[in-house]
Amino acid sequence: MSNVTPKSAALMGAKNGSPFILVLLPFAVLFGVLANQAGLSIEAAFGFSLLVIAGSAQFAALQLLTEDAAIPLILLASLSVNLRMAMYSASLVPHLGKAPLWQRALVAYLNFDQSYAVSSAKYQEEPNWSVPAKVAYFLGVATPLATIWYVMTLVGVLVGTSIPQEWGLDFILPITFIGLFAPMLRTLAHLAAAGTSVFVALIFVSLPSGMGVLIAALCAMVVGVVVETWMEKRGAL
Amino acid sequence: MIANEKVWTVIVLLAIGTFLIRFSFLGLVGDRELPPIILKALRYTPVAVLPGMVAPLVLWPAATQGVTDPLRLFAALVTLGVGMWRKSFMPAALSGAVAFYGGLWVLNLAS
């Protein structure tokens, strides 16, 4: 089936993306709850999910806001979590690069881990689809998931208002972060990068909030690349 | 309580920055190859940022006035272990939460 109408591609996208509702739903509720506990208004929590629409970066910004870090540091740390999306953006170019600008802008806004993963897998399978079908497929995957993300953030804020502070929700955020990065520790290079990040962040913990994390992230990226290059050379020998 | 202006400044600037990252190649740069070393480095950004952010929160939690809490440390290690083993967010986060709240409950019973 190398040719489909945009409409059927969009429906197929919605279907293929639907399992990720189960992933995003609790995550969005959690963001709403924690934003509420951190003292953010319902508009601010919703604003985060609607305008930023990037889970890990939202949690990172929330954490640094509660630590009262300076704004440039909050932005640098949260944006560096999102840098991987530049890679997603680059890898969509061969498929969607010829779409009209407004469609590319819409795809860019909706380009998060799940929409990217599902769509790029489909483009590998169906390289001959028309550009409109590929755009429709992407939007078919992303739109329902984004809607869940917005609505469930609001639900989370409302749930959060009924949770007493004594429940120790402070520790849910660290658990969320660990749950996010632990599955990514698949190679020695990723382990080395994560270990470096922890080590350097602990050394610089007395620096102004957010600064230590940035230094740690830079060191960790260098270590990740060096170890990966080293592993490749070793494998090639 | 965080100042509302600060929160909105972060939201708006983070939204613009995140959009520009997502729009970068698709919208502006087009079909150009990235240097391989940059591509490699980009792959490490989540594991470079998140562990460093989490480590002080686990070792010196604000809730215990910065004193290391064995229960929080344990729950963090459970989350890490399950996450690496099952390679998925939900089992990791749920086990961590169960370890933490289960631990709190047991400690309450014991005291």
3D architecture notes:
The complex is a heterodimer of chains A (237) and B (111). Chain A is mostly helical. Chain A is 77% helix and 0% strand. Chain A contains 12 helices and no strands. In chain A, helix 1 packs parallel to helix 9 (131-161), helix 2 (21-37) packs across helix 9 and helix 6 (84-96) packs parallel to helix 8 (113-125). The radius of gyration of chain A is 20 Å and the shape is globular. The termini of chain A are far apart. By secondary structure, chain B is mainly α. Chain B contains 5 helices and no strands. In chain B, helix 4 packs antiparallel against helix 5. Chain B starts with a helix and ends with a helix. The model of chain B has no long low-confidence stretch (mean pLDDT 89). Classes of the chains: A mainly alpha (237), B mainly alpha (111). At the A-B interface, helix 2, helix 3, helix 4, helix 5 and helix 6 of A face helix 1, helix 2, helix 3, helix 4 and helix 5 of B.
- SS strand fraction of chain B: under 5%
* Major sheet characteristics of chain B: none
What are the segments of chain B in which pLDDT stays under 50 over at least 5 consecutive residues? none
Tell me which oligomeric state these chains represent: heterodimer
Outline of chain B, from the CA principal axes? Answer: extended
Amount of beta strand of chain A = under 5%
- How would you spell out the order of helices and strands of chain B? HHHHH
Compute the number of helices of chain B.
Answer: 5
Approximately how much helix is present in the residues of chain A?
over 70%
Radius of gyration of chain B: 20 Å
Q: What share of residues of chain B is helical?
A: over 70%
Structural class of chain A: mainly alpha
Major sheet attributes of chain A = none
Q: State the largest interface.
A: A-B, 94 and 74 residues
Q: Please report the total strand number of chain B as a whole number.
A: 0
Q: Roughly how many Å apart are the termini of chain A?
A: 43 Å
Q: How would the global form of chain A be characterised? A: globular
Low-pLDDT regions of chain A: none
The radius of gyration over CA of chain A amounts to 20 Å
What's the end-to-end separation of chain B, in Å? 33 Å
